[in-house]
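Model the whole thing, not chain by chain.
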Amino acid sequence: MPPALEASGVTKRFGAVVALNDARLTVGRGEVHALLGANGCGKSTLCKIIAGTVARDDGEIRVAGEARALASPRAAEAAGIALYYQELSLVPQLTVAENVFLGHEPRGFGGFVDETTLNDRTDLLIGRFAGVAGEGFTARTRVSDLSPDQRQITEILKVLARKPRLIIFDEATAALDRRQVDVFFSIMKDLRAEGISSIFISHRLDEVFRVADRITVMRNGATVADFATAETTPEAIVREMVGDVRLGPKGGTAAPAEAAEIRLSVEGVTGGRLQGVSFAARRGEILGLGGLQGQGQKRLLAGLFGADPFTGGRVLLDGEPVAPRRPADAIAAGFGLVSGDRARDAAFPGRSILENAAMASLVRDKARLILLGPLRSRFSRTLSGLKTRYAGLNAPIGSLSGGNQQKIFIARWLAARPSVLLLDDPTKGIDLGAKADFFAIVRALAGTGATILIYSSEDADLLSLCHRVLVFNGGRITADLTGSTLDAMALTRAAYGEAA
Amino acid sequence: MDRLIQILKDPLLIAALAILVLLGAGELLSPGFARGDQIVRLLTVAAILGIVAAGQNLVVLGGREGIDLSVGAVISLGAVIAGNVMSGNDAAILPAVAAAAGAGFLVGIVNGLGVTVVRIPPLVMTLGMMGVLQGALVVLSRGVPSGNAAPALMAFVNQPFVLGIPGILFVWAAIAVLMAFVLRRTAFGWSIYAIGSNERAAVLTGLAAGRIRTILYGLSGLFAGVTGVCVIGYTGNSFISVGDQYVLPSVIAVVIGGTSLAGGSGSYTGTILGAIALVLLQSVLTTLQMEFWSRQVIFGATLLVLMLLYGRQARLRV
């Protein structure tokens, strides 16, 4: 019998960035298959291709032996592939049955929804989880009345109602507590017994070793190893994930002395995923926020910047408490933020380079009149110092490449002289040359005494830029790597929750 | 070639060409149409539209589907207030202007708070405000507005003031200079474009988007209130729906002038040309003896055709 899924030679480029280059994955029938790799290794892209949300450039994918294009999510669904969302996608006002069959409601006479069939089928599905479903959980229960465990089961029912042959669980256990994880794993074992295959992505190696039958490791867009779980060890997996790392030039600035004063002190902050995060950063320090994606790093930056205020804990800047409720407060206190999602968070499309560059300092200086001459000469000096290629300050921001745009947005903050600059995945989608320039700018800024906090979806960025890296896992800091302990191996192990 | 097409697609150039074509057409249909005193007459009418369109322009530039449909009712309100304050008395002109402008500003601030704090869509908020004001005007005046314009105000709007040009055109010129200065040379002006082109980025840059947008609605109300004073100066006395005819044209003038209804791009210079072109169009259609409702059809169609032409660039790209 052919395997449930067989992908080979899958490639995908996004502009100049090669996301996948010869990715392979074979998932047997009724097999739980873990897909592992460091940030940016391409495992998410591969899953999106299998789920039909991203089109591949090249390569072959066979589902149960049959070659499939998987050109759309609908095509993937027709091929029996389902995606389990970690973000709850339920509509609280609807019943369990209405959620489970949302968009696929059984139709009766005249094309109206056949409620009896809808509820009967849902009750049948719920019956499969009788052991873990708990009290008051029927097809007619409103989702808003369910416990968190029951909602999680409803999400799985939603997937199962599509009668899939293969389910992709992307970080499915990330938001669950220990007991919920146990429930989840017992469900996965049930699915396995029914011959349904799973692709399991997790940031916890111990979970992978508990539940997976096989493990595929990816690195730099390619598949590098495929193990039977019983025949390998966590150490071997981490070694494959890290590989033979080659880094960009390591830091141009020395780490700040132990004696350098503490600039930013974060004490037990909570909110969203953050479960009480504490650390201190010195003047001139470039501090990385590492770990796998979605472990609370972005939430920390949003909280510090006042875009999404913390729900608890406190923050001291130069010894003074700061509690920004909105970005304007944080900016007034001396924070700046450069986001990698330029179109969403930074760009004023259709406006000139000068307007895009000057806005933060106009706000910071509480400017009223605009003295165009001095402003122009100031920014043309700054931008040429950043090696920015641009046609002129009046050219629209959209005329620049991603890397040059990002230089404009860091120039925006350089001009406002921040004492803490927050970088949220700032090198996303920019080429290597611009990235090196960008790093040089950041190092120079740190050299003037500014404190830099950087989150990057690429571990290599953190390794080549940071003096110190805090590793996040499940909303907590699980490792503090610096100096001799800061290398790719340690970073990956810590990200996956392995003791160093 | 691309560059030539780029230039030809400039809304300012298109509006200027439209003005010339309409002038030529008017002269052909009715010799004397483009005579000096006729043009001054047309510009006077355009000035009234241009002043209310200045506020409309600001609200549209501020983005988030910004539009002010209450300007018509605010013009009526301004005209009624000014007429009552003046009651034909020259000495009371300035208090009348202040009262009409102040009332308009307050109405606009309420619109702005509804849009920013309560997050009512601008179309609904200002449409609701229009209904409230229209009703209130009828109730308070019992359908028969009292008050009339002071003679000096009528002379200022209708009679030559300096060099054969009525005073209202100097007021319009001053507003034009002020608008250009604010939009191009003040941090407030730049922040209007910023919140209009990407509100999230503007907030992350430290701009108080809600406060700025509330002020824009306030200014739109203020300009509409002042327009009410001009209208009563133009006609001599007010009636309670005198402003209604300005709502659609104020939006069309802004769009003809190249301001994107998506916000964040455009200029008042364009809106001035748009107001002039629109008044010319109206005049040519009147010369053709087209009745009021047929002209409404042409106006509405003009707006829709413009949206069709410019709509493709409404979603700005980075």
